[in-house]
Amino acid sequence: MPLNKVVSSFAEAVADVPDGAVIMMDGFGGPGGMPQQLILALRTQGAKNLTIISNTAGLPGFGATGKEPAINHGILVESGQVRKVIASFPVSPSPSRPTAFELAYREGRAELELVPQGTLAERIRAGGAGIPAFYTPTGVGTSVARGKETRVFDGRGYVLEHALKADYAFLRALKADRLGNLVYRGTSRNFNAVMATAARITIAEVDEIVEPGELDPEAIVTPGIYVKRIVKR
Amino acid sequence: MPLNKVVSSFAEAVADVPDGAVIMMDGFGGPGGMPQQLILALRTQGAKNLTIISNTAGLPGFGATGKEPAINHGILVESGQVRKVIASFPVSPSPSRPTAFELAYREGRAELELVPQGTLAERIRAGGAGIPAFYTPTGVGTSVARGKETRVFDGRGYVLEHALKADYAFLRALKADRLGNLVYRGTSRNFNAVMATAARITIAEVDEIVEPGELDPEAIVTPGIYVKRIVKR
Amino acid sequence: MIAPRLDREAIAMRVARELPDGAYVNLGIGIPTLVSQFVPEGRTVVYQAENGVLNYGPLAQREEELDVDLINAGGQFLLPVPGMAFFDSAQAFAMIRGGHVDVAVLGALQVSQTGDLANWMLPERGIGNIGGAMDLAAGARRIIVAMEHTDPHGRPKVVRECTYPLTGRACVSLVVTDVAVLEVTPRGLLLKEVAPGWTTEAVQKITEPRLLLAPDLKEMEL
Amino acid sequence: MIAPRLDREAIAMRVARELPDGAYVNLGIGIPTLVSQFVPEGRTVVYQAENGVLNYGPLAQREEELDVDLINAGGQFLLPVPGMAFFDSAQAFAMIRGGHVDVAVLGALQVSQTGDLANWMLPERGIGNIGGAMDLAAGARRIIVAMEHTDPHGRPKVVRECTYPLTGRACVSLVVTDVAVLEVTPRGLLLKEVAPGWTTEAVQKITEPRLLLAPDLKEMEL
Q: Model ipTM?
């Protein structure tokens, strides 16, 4: 059978997400890069006790233009489906406007593992690349190094950080071919391309599905080997 | 001044390579991906006691089509400029046709650090990415793990491997803009794109130099931040 | 002695003069974002943002220019410019951690006399955003802090030891504030410039650690 | 009992039947490169090569098709096919090490009864090429060895302990040779199939470790 990873609906794409699943999703900020339809479908599907690995824990309005609603994983926090977030930018920049996650965190309804953004990206990359752990200079001498192994190489201190993997990665890409090759648009690539590599089941929400050969083979960012399901918005 | 990394000749591009320099260069096989003109210029320039980090130690004929001579870093071994090679595929597949490097190695004129290919790529990536060391499953229980720290994560053994950096990286790319953004062609991308990140001075030999904006910003493989000099073939 | 403090633009203007021609620069949020508009004529500076863009230029201003797929790390909308390159977050931070970014300009809550930086959390909030700050602090070749000299309560932000959670240790090279320019040296903080109308004594008065005076101490040029 | 051994194509043909529909597969040099031409009708297999190409198809044959920028890891020239993707060596091995390649088919000098693999160096040469073999041995989800059952001197290549330098420990799942199909199990090597005309005794005779016999042992189907 010719390879075809296209799934016909968002509901179908997320149907098998179990309670307790670990899910990676982009979320640098606003609507760019967010797998909005997958998130909406997961809210409807209702899986609970989720762990979300993302840059933020859902920031309303950040990076939005006002042209479209900025749906992000904050809605899963609001619906009580999220037990834990692993993030670098978990709360609103302004303390006077706490997000759903900050409230849940303060009330003990949600946990947080706070990770520097580059360490987050590198831990995800490591997860996808078969590297269980690596040393990084980031965070040495700060609270993020607390309880972690540190080690000196060439006279400088480094912290040991461990790979992150997930059960699912929800991606937002611009185009896919049915083999799962993906391209993104502009800065929306950010965490999407690296999360694509680190999940057991990677699902891409895309604007357009094209035939193999229509994407420039030199410009494919995520080769299809990483992608299990594709859904068109 | 507008940024302009274009250098007018190969001789000028390699003029400052000192004796004892560590140089990365591609070399999966034949002419594809090899910075042939930079290698020729370095032979003329004459720097000695070089350490070459490359997939091979120069394999005549591999991957060549007969349409053009397959110049590679083997000529620097022949000219006695190479003291050490760090490689994964250092000798000819057929023992009856030893390369210049194999002869030099047997006669004690050149050293070898033999590294699995994926570990080589990852050590170079680590060098470019500020990661001093990482654990990998590759080579556990084999001679490449000898004398190295091993460690168990989640019940599986891993070896600690260290970053590789270089004084120079000689790249072969298809196109550059004068800001140093690069694209490659086909499988010639292989070690070039990762070596670009790990040297103090990265020099790209390209077929064509274009104006900024002519390369698709979504398809740039090596962003200009990694590239110091560009020379047109 | 009660000379006015510099405004945020003037701080940014002074920082801009520190950026060498051809430098790759990452600008943090707050005052640092203002720096790009003051780069001296004839100098080229290339901006990197940790959400995955190199060589970005002016910000988008008009409603119809706003593109959710074209933002910098502060969430500001960008305009497309020739020579831009996009990459993913792992690559963006590989650049930063790998020492490819020449200068990062960051805001700060506190800077210590040994160059420790605290800029990610007010302890009273109990939760905060690290974002890319720790990676920039650890990875950029040179860290310039751009900030007001005192906090909203009038307390010194240049301190002997940071009391706020740290972003990085001994990472800051230069501090540009609304009253002075301080260099972090192995012997301590060197007062190199004072704002117009400010005396060294006045600066010292709102600075916790003892300042060393540069032999060529002068008035800040903007 | 002196039935003929299978030729290299027949070994490859038997291996091809092991590749599931939709599998991502890396083929080593030697007999493994022959596997792709025998994938059963109706099955799609996607090939990955560690020099940075996914979804490659047929080899280039004619002189005018040869393109130095389009080769697989064995240095064979490829034809462009729709859906191909190129990437760098770090990404290629991230795929392999990260467990994204479902099956690697590798040649071998020796395979031990516990699935140790030796395939990169003849000890008498004193120097050898590791290439991507160790990464594939460590990273691919399933390793199938395709080889002749004995070496050019007639010595068993299926051994109790590898005497040649190892490529990986306990990494091989299945061994397909010119006389048999062996599965590596926790209890030892399980003889699952013999080549047409071969008896279990004849296979055992040229195999160093004691073989377990599969209850459903059968003749190799090609």
A: 0.97
How high is the mean pLDDT of chain C?
A: 96
Low-confidence stretches of chain A (pLDDT beneath 50): none
Q: Which residues of A touch B (CB under 8 A)?
A: 122, 126, 129-137, 153-154, 156, 158, 162, 183-186, 216-219, 221
DSSP result, C171-206 = -EEEEE-SSEEEEEETTEEEEEEE-TT--HHHHHHT
pLDDT band for C154, please (50, 70, 90 cuts). very high
Q: Which of B123, B124, B131, B152 should one mutate to test binding to chain A, selecting the residue with the greatest count of A CBs within 10 A?
A: B131
Residue C157's domain comprises 8-219
How sure is the predictor about D162, in pLDDT bands with cuts at 50, 70 and 90? very high
Examine residue D208 and state whether it is found in any structural domain, yes or no.
yes
Tell me the per-residue pLDDT of A118-167, one tens digit each, with 9 for 90 and over. Answer: 999 999 999 999 999 999 999 999 999 999 999 999 999 999 999 999 99
Provide the pLDDT for residue B93.
87
C-beta atoms of D134 and B144 within 8 A: yes
- How many CB pairs (< 8 A) connect A and B? 58
Per-residue pLDDT at A93 = 87
In a domain, D3, yes or no: no
- CATH number for C16: 3.40.1080.10
pTM recorded for the entire structure: 0.98
Of A173, A161, A81, A73, whose CA–CA distance to A124 is shortest?
A161
Question: What SS3 string covers chain D?
Answer: CCCCCCCHHHHHHHHHCCCCCCEEEEECCCHHHHHHHHCCCCCCEEEEECCCEECCCCECCCHHHCCCCCECCCCCEECCCCCCEECCHHHHHHHHHCCCCCEEEECCCEEECCCCEECCCCHHHCCCCCCCHHHHHHHCCEEEEECCCECCCCCECEECCCCCCCCECCCEEEEECCCEEEEEECCEEEEEEECCCCCHHHHHHCCCCCCEEEEEEEECCC
Which CATH number, 3.40.50.1240, 3.30.70.20, 3.40.1080.10, 3.30.310.50, labels domain B10-232?
A: 3.40.1080.10
Q: How many domains is chain C partitioned into structurally? A: 1
For the annotated catalytic residues of D, the residue numbers are 50
Tell me if residue C50 is catalytic. Answer: yes
Closest CA in chain A for residue C54 = A187
| Interface contact B128-C94, CB threshold 8 A | yes
Determine, for residues A217 and D80 on separate chains, whether the beta-carbon distance falls below 8 Å. yes
Catalytic residue among C9, C18, C41, C50: C50
Q: What is the pLDDT of residues C122-141, one digit of tens each?
A: 999 999 999 999 999 999 99
What is the pLDDT, as a whole number, of residue B62? 66
Segments making up each domain of chain B, as ranges:
10-232
Q: Is the pLDDT score of D1 beyond 60?
A: no
Distance of CA A218 to the CA centre of its chain: 25
Testing the interface with B: which of D88, D91, D122, D171 to mutate, by most B Cβ within 10 A?
D88
Selection from A170, A181, A176, A174 nearest residue A209 by Cα: A176
Residue D2: inside a domain: no
Distance from CA of D187 to the nearest CA of B (A): 20
Over residues B119-145, the mean pLDDT reads: 98
Residue from the list C52, C137, C165 with its beta carbon closest to the beta carbon of A187: C52
Does the pLDDT of residue B29 top 70, yes or no?
A: no
DSSP B108: T
Do A186 and C86 count as a contact with CB atoms less than 8 A apart?
yes
